[in-house]
Amino acid sequence: MRPVWRAGREARLHTRRGGCRRRAPGAGRPPTLRFTDRLVVTLAHLRLGLPHEAIAVVFGVDRSTITRAIGQLRPLLASRGCAAPSGVRLHSLADVFAYAAAEGVTVRLDATEIRVRRPRAGRGGRKAFVSGKLKQNTIKTTVAADQHGATLWCGSTRPGRMHDTTAARIEGIEVLLQLHPTVRLLVDAGYQGLARDHPDQVSAPPLKPRPGVPVERHIQWQTARKAQSSQRIPVEHAIAEHKWWRVLQRFTGRRELLPETINAVAGIVSDRSGPFPLRSR
Questions:
Q1: Which residues form the Transposase Helix-turn-helix domain (predicted)?
Q2: In the chain, where are the structural domains located?
Q3: 212: alpha, beta or left? (left if phi > 0; alpha if psi -120 to 50)
């Protein structure tokens, strides 16, 4: 990642100076923070949610230097994608389906919501962030995981008011299901519509029986629901690993930066299941 950061820095220098350098590469004042320091600063902010002002005091620099360093490295971390157990990196939902079809992986899919600041009064789309489930202003993102709880993909970031199935359909999941008929998905009750349209590929919890049915029917429903939940639970573990990072417990920054932050955290978390052996849960 260091060469990419250096290339971006050189590009910014050429842009500021009209496309040509007045000094040889390496001349001039060195950067205040080295690349390793900038990486530590970014990870500390994402993991602990420390304010930029507090990190600046620790490193003995100005707050704007910390803000600039995080703004430069966060997109680099987000562009890395998620590391699969086989070693490849997945960047999109299409990559996840291709990987699942090749490796025979049953994908666990679920959505999670992150609290964000409420838009100012008078702005258009202010109600789009109000979650019908949490009754708070949130942004929703979709997470895909394998049977071990390893994060395969994190995306389809939408305002909290949007339904889970709608967000997945906008991402093109129905087309991917048709292109990869061997891929199987395990989802929760929020994807009942997707399971109804693709019953051979998408497995959702069974619907609750209506009142008045025999007791045996309720027992069968509870048994089937528990069995499906036990198979789907690894994606909940993956989401929990993301929420360990303080910045995703409640995002207080600009809402347009949240998708980039989510992808950065997901890529870092997935590194634990990349070239390393998977731990049993």
A1: 33-82
A2: 2-20+30-78, 90-273
A3: left
How remote is the C-alpha of 230 from its chain's centroid? Answer: 23
Nearest to 109 by CA among 97, 119, 121: 97
Give the pairing of strands 202-203 and 185-186. parallel
pLDDT of residue 43: 94
**CB contact set of 74 (below 8 Å; sequence gap of 6+):** 42, 46, 257, 260, 261, 264
Q: CB within 8 A of 189, min separation 6: which ones?
A: 204, 205
Tell me the pTM. Answer: 0.85
In our burial notation (b when 16+ CB lie closer than 10 A, e otherwise), range 23-57 reads eeeeeeeeeebebeebbbbbbbbbeeebebeebbe
Q: What gap in Å lies between CA 268 and CA 3, rounded to an integer? A: 18
Return the structure tokens found at 237. 């573990």
- The mean predicted confidence, pLDDT, of the chain is 87
In whole angstroms, how large is the CA radius of gyration of the chain?
22
DSSP string of 213-265?
Answer: S-HHHHHHHHHHHHHHHHHHHHHHHHHHHHHTSGGGTB--S-GGGHHHHHHHH
How confident is the model at residue 217, as a pLDDT?
A: 85
Q: Which of 269, 244, 243, 247 lies closest to 49 in space, CA to CA?
A: 247
- Alpha-carbon span 183 to 242, nearest angstrom: 25
Between CA 107 and CA 152 the distance in angstroms is 9
CA dist 139 and 157 (Å) reads: 7
* 3-class DSSP string for 100-162: HHHHCCCEEEEEEEEECCCCCCCCCCHHHHECCCCCCEEEEEEEEECCCCCEEEEEEEEECCC
Residue 2 has pLDDT above 90, yes or no: no
